[in-house]
Specification:
With 587 residues, the protein is an all-beta fold. Helices cover 2% and strands 48% of the residues.
């Protein structure tokens, strides 16, 4: 018989059949599995197995059939295995010649079954490791696709071997019907004769140690945490389990995975074992702790007032959940003498110590928790001024309130407000002044003569030295008669080099609306604030880059309640900024 070269595509489907010892017979794609009978078709007795088969390989007529052997995985060490030889596109065939080679140390030929009933089909296995099957028919024979042409029975001795068709001339060949028995084209060989294999497999080995994050902990919410195990011998699959709240995001069914841990994950085992059709190996696991953010610390307890030079002053906070350590923030001049990184510390305060705040934060390897509420510590070294008094907003004579406040700390503070009248004198409570011995001085309905008075506060405490505020708080009292007024006097003009600025508000008093008219000597920005008798201010108008000349805008007086107000006008250029109040009466 002769060979003909012809190239075409091969299409096939792989089918897997599994049987367990004692299972009833099953059948798929022409390959059966039977445990109870003690004879396995495509399987070794007493074992699990896997058979890969080709269900559909076909060509147009005029070519040799496609002949294919299965891939069989065997789990036992010995027994009988039956190997089906199947065909596709088997049409009008008059002669068959097939040669199959295998490892005779793995398989020992026993017998064959003419499963298709092809006339004259016989098998010769006189040479170990080589099997020759052939037959002639008196007419062309056709078989359905996936028909088992013949079934070969071997004694399986253990191990793995290929099942290879040998095509070196007439060793593998098909012919057409008699009387000519014309050889059919079957080249290239791999497209017409599909090899198989027998693979011996055992239960996977035990899983080794799992490699995970250092310290065997992860942070709550941590993503892409790697875990791996050394490749497990004979494992076809890797079965991983992770704690509740954790999710395998990549690598599942391999020996290396990455895992996302949600913020609600709980501590637990990450485990893995090998799996194949023969069974499972022993699992390996590692316990993973979940570190959550430390909770908010409770209130700090300890002395809130100490003197400079004091030592071994204890401060403590209740243990913070999820905290492995504690970070303390101290006032200036305080030093931890013992208990660093714990929830109880001892402090000393040197001569440079200043009043301030003590706070603590719980920390662990993953998170810095929230800080505690600040615990104020007053150092007994005399009063400490935190905020100097500011000049109050202008008030109208006889119709307004001015507030001047100092913010200070210290032990046993006392306050005495003073006014400058050739010299600093203490203020007594009267119809104009209240709060003279508190941190806030209130001036009620001041007289026009009080315009320009300067105030300061004298502070004393349990510790020296006494303190005075800077005396820069100035009271501004607006004359109710001021309607049309300049923004600057001759002295200021000479100092800053600007021309006369004037503003006029009319009508005033106003019932419905007033017009504010201004003369601007040079380009600048204008802001107009409305200030009521309580000192509350509202932005009425704001305009940038106003060109020199006359500028005016309308104010709707119906938007405000009847009463007396101050319009605070501000004009700013690149080189200077000035302001001026105007009294406005709404009827």
């Amino acid at each position: 018989m002769h060979k003909y070269l012809f190239c075409f595509w091969l299409v096939f489907l792989t089918t897997t059949v599994k049987c367990l010892a004692g299972d009833p017979p099953v059948s798929q794609a022409g390959v059966s599995c039977c445990k109870a009978s003690g004879v396995l078709s495509g399987v070794c007795q007493g074992s699990k197995e896997q058979i890969s088969d080709l269900n559909s390989i076909s060509y147009s007529t005029g070519f040799a059939p496609v002949t294919y052997l299965p891939a069989i995985t065997i789990c036992s060490s010995n027994g009988t295995v039956e190997i089906p030889v199947k065909v596709n596109s088997f049409s009008d065939i008059g002669a068959i010649s097939l040669t199959i080679q295998y490892d005779s140390n793995i398989l020992v030929y026993q017998s064959f079954i003419n499963s298709s009933g092809y006339p004259g089909l016989d098998v010769d296995c006189s040479v170990p490791g080589t099997l020759v099957a052939g037959g002639f028919a008196s007419e062309g024979i056709s078989l359905d696709d996936s028909t088992v042409l013949l079934t070969l029975s071997f004694m399986y001795l253990g191990g793995s071997t290929t099942l290879s068709f040998v095509d070196n001339g007439t060793s593998c060949e098909f012919a057409g019907p008699p009387p000519t028995w014309q050889p059919l084209p079957d080249s290239p060989q791999q497209d017409f004769y599909v090899d198989g294999e027998i693979t011996g497999l055992t239960v996977p080995a035990n899983a080794g140690l799992i490699s995970g994050p250092p310290g065997d902990y992860v942070c709550a919410g941590q993503m892409n945490v790697p875990f791996s195990v050394q490749p497990i011998i004979n494992a076809q699959n890797y079965i991983w389990t992770v704690p509740d709240g954790a999710t395998i995001v990549s690598g599942n069914n391999t020996n290396s995975i990455t895992v996302d841990f949600s913020t609600t994950s709980i501590a637990g085992n990450v485990a893995v074992y090998g799996d194949n059709i023969c069974g499972t190996g022993s699992a390996s696991s590692v316990f993973i702790n979940i570190l959550f953010a430390p909770a908010s610390p409770g209130l700090i307890s300890g002395s809130d007032s100490v003197c400079t030079g004091e030592n071994e002053v204890m401060y403590t906070v209740a243990p913070v959940p999820n905290a492995a350590s504690y970070n303390w923030v101290l006032p200036e001049g305080a030093v931890i003498t013992s208990g660093q990184y714990t929830n109880t510390i001892f402090l000393s305060f040197d001569e440079s110590a200043e009043s301030g705040f003590l706070s603590v934060t719980g920390i662990n390897a993953c998170f810095n928790g929230p800080s505690s509420l600040p615990f104020p510590i007053t150092i007994g070294s005399g009063p400490f001024i935190i905020e100097q008094p500011l000049s109050p907003l202008p008030v109208m004579a006889g119709a307004g309130l001015a507030h001047i406040q100092v913010v200070a700390s210290g032990l046993g503070l006392s306050y005495q407000w003073q006014v400058y009248n050739s010299e600093w004198v203490n203020i007594l409570t009267d119809e104009f002044y209240s709060g003279v011995n508190s941190d806030e001085l209130v001036i009620t309905n001041p007289l026009p003569a009080m315009d320009g008075l300067t105030f300061r506060c004298h502070l004393q405490g349990e510790c020296e030295p006494e303190q005075f505020t800077d005396g820069n708080a100035v009271l501004t009292v607006i004359d109710p008669m001021g309607i049309d007024s300049p923004w600057s006097d001759q002295t200021k003009q000479n100092t800053i080099g600007i021309g006369q600025l004037r503003a006029m508000l009319y009508p005033n008093p106003s019932k419905y609306k007033s017009m504010l008219s201004m003369f601007i000597p040079e380009k600048g920005d204008i802001r107009c604030l409305l200030v009521n008798s309580l000192g509350q201010s509202y932005l009425i108008k704001e305009k940038e880059s106003v060109e020199p000349g006359n500028f005016q805008f309308e104010i709707n007086s119906r938007l405000f309640s009847p009463g007396q107000y101050i319009l605070m006008l501000q004009f700013t250029t690149r080189n200077f900024s000035i302001s001026n109040p105007l009294r406005w009466i709404i009827e």
